[in-house]
């Protein structure tokens, strides 16, 4: 009794308040389960279950003239669990892959639900709210069911978070740890059905899968930690639900389900472009930075090689020599040297027509030459490459060899002094070569 009183206290009196609370519950439940759906690569499963619940909704409307939310919820959940179980059974007893089984179940249940509803149109007058969503039609009884279902859903997920996570990544490893994989999978599908049913009246059967996948996909782009992903997915789901619900409630001709889905898609689009680690712009920025770094290192290596060819008898390299070595124009070589100057790797001569390496420049140039020649020697000695086929591969790998890898190469090659072509491999302790 006290619990029911608390529920009545939580339910707003106004229609707008009910819509916002429903949107919050929708976002929390869908975002939470959506994280597991994304990790399991089972976006189609959410879509299949959302369509499979339609016969259950129709049955609830037909056999409950008073439109009891509890009865409709139970009928929809039963149909969803039956659909998920049928998918698993088809995968276990046939050669069919998951996408094929999901497509068959989705089409069959949805077609059966539409046919059943068409033959009982008078008894199923409100079915369109479940098909396309209408958050404004949610009443106090619906909210009570949504609150209870969402609280139960969140509680079970947070209690079983670790085993559900392990099973989502690797079922074989989970069995090795002693987890009851079949039971956990059954619990997951049951929870997924619950989350789908909770979202039905808000976004509808057609678009409920978007609320399962889109907020979780946005969270997945922002973090590599699952706990943070759960919270971000729930937050994005709540935000999308509230924005979509408010817009739909205040602007005529804006259906709830599509507006909430578009709000979630807008969140995903923002993270797709702006995520600091996995966003498109961040990747583009890193790619540009990496390309510039490779160009700088190649120019430093060219300066070193020119001086090496001259026996280190002079400490300046003319821009003309550098341009010839790099197979560029003199203006291009000047721009490359300006970039090196900005990073403190070179110094310009007084007339501006030659450069010399600074101590940091010598250090980096020698590291590149050492990486290149060590890798060439490794390929010829350990991988049996011909010594005239190793240069191009070394040109690429020299820029990504880490310190530990270089040390391991030196140990494996017994600290060599010459590369396959007889050229000396710069030693790490030698930062500035002697100038004759």
Task: Give descriptors for this structure.
436 residues; mainly alpha; ABC transporter involved in vitamin B12 uptake, BtuC; Arc Repressor Mutant, subunit A; 2 domains; three-stranded antiparallel sheet; 3 strands; elongated
CA-CA gap between termini = 95 Å
Tally of individual domains: 2
Strand order of the largest sheet: 1-3-2
Mean pLDDT: 83
Describe the largest sheet. 3 strands, antiparallel
- In terms of quaternary structure, the protein is single chain
Helix-strand sequence: HHHHHHHHHHHHHHEHHEEHHH
Low-confidence stretches: 431-436
What is the architecture of the largest domain at the second tier of CATH?
Orthogonal Bundle
Class derived from helix and strand content: mainly alpha
Number of strands: 3
Number of helices: 19
Instruction: State Rg.
Output: 32 Å
Shape: elongated
Percent range for helical residues?
Answer: over 70%
Q: Mind telling me the CATH superfamily name of the largest domain?
A: ABC transporter involved in vitamin B12 uptake, BtuC
CATH class type of the largest domain? Mainly Alpha
The CATH topology of the largest domain turns out to be ABC transporter involved in vitamin B12 uptake, BtuC
Helices and strands, with pairings:
Elements: H1 2-10, H2 15-39, H3 43-52, H4 54-63, H5 69-93, H6 98-118, H7 127-132, H8 140-159, H9 161-169, H10 171-176, H11 181-222, H12 226-250, H13 256-274, H14 280-309, E1 317-318, H15 319-326, H16 330-342, E2 346-348, E3 354-357, H17 359-381, H18 391-397, H19 403-412
Antiparallel strand pairs: 1-3, 2-3
Helix pairs in contact: 2-8, 2-11, 2-12, 3-5, 3-6, 3-11, 4-5, 4-6, 5-6, 5-11, 8-11, 11-12, 11-13, 12-13, 14-15, 14-16, 14-17, 15-16, 17-18
């Amino acid at each position: 009794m006290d619990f029911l009183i608390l529920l009545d206290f939580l339910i707003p009196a106004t229609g707008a308040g009910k819509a916002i609370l429903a949107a919050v519950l929708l976002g929390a439940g869908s975002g939470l389960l959506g994280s597991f759906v994304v990790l399991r690569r089972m976006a189609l499963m959410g879509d299949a279950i959302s369509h499979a619940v339609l016969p259950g909704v129709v049955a609830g409307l037909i056999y409950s003239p008073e439109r009891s939310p509890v009865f409709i919820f139970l009928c929809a959940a039963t149909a969803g669990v039956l659909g998920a179980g049928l998918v698993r059974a088809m995968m276990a007893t046939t050669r069919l892959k998951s996408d094929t089984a999901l497509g068959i179940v989705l089409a069959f249940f949805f077609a059966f639900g539409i046919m059943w509803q068409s033959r009982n149109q008078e008894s199923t007058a409100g079915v369109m709210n479940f098909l396309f969503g209408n958050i404004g039609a949610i009443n106090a009884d619906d909210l009570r069911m949504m609150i209870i279902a969402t609280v139960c859903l969140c509680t079970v997920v947070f209690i079983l978070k670790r085993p559900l996570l392990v099973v989502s990544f690797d079922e074989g490893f989970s069995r090795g740890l002693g987890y009851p994989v079949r039971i956990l999978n059954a619990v997951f599908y049951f929870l997924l059905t619950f989350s789908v049913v909770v979202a039905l009246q808000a976004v509808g059967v057609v678009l409920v899968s978007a609320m399962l996948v889109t907020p979780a996909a946005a969270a997945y782009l922002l973090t590599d930690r699952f706990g943070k992903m759960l919270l971000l997915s729930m937050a994005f789901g709540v935000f999308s639900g509230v924005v979509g619900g408010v817009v739909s409630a205040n602007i005529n001709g804006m259906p709830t389900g599509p507006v909430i889905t578009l709000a979630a898609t807008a969140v995903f689009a923002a993270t797709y472009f702006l995520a600091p680690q996995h966003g498109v712009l961040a990747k583009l920025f890193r790619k540009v930075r990496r390309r510039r770094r490779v160009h700088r290192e190649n120019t430093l290596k060219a300066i070193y090689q020119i001086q090496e060819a001259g026996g280190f008898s002079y400490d300046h390299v003319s821009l003309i020599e550098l341009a010839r070595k790099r197979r560029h124009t003199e203006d291009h070589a000047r721009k490359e040297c300006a970039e090196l100057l900005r990073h403190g790797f070179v110094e310009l001569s007084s007339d501006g027509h030659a450069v010399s390496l600074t101590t940091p420049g010598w250090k980096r140039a020698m590291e590149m030459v050492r990486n290149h020649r060590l890798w060439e020697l490794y390929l010829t000695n350990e991988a049996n490459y011909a010594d005239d086929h190793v240069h191009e591969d070394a040109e690429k790998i020299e820029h990504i060899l880490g310190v530990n890898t270089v040390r391991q190469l030196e140990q494996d090659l017994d600290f060599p002094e010459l590369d396959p072509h007889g050229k000396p491999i710069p030693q790490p302790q030698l930062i500035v070569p002697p100038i004759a």
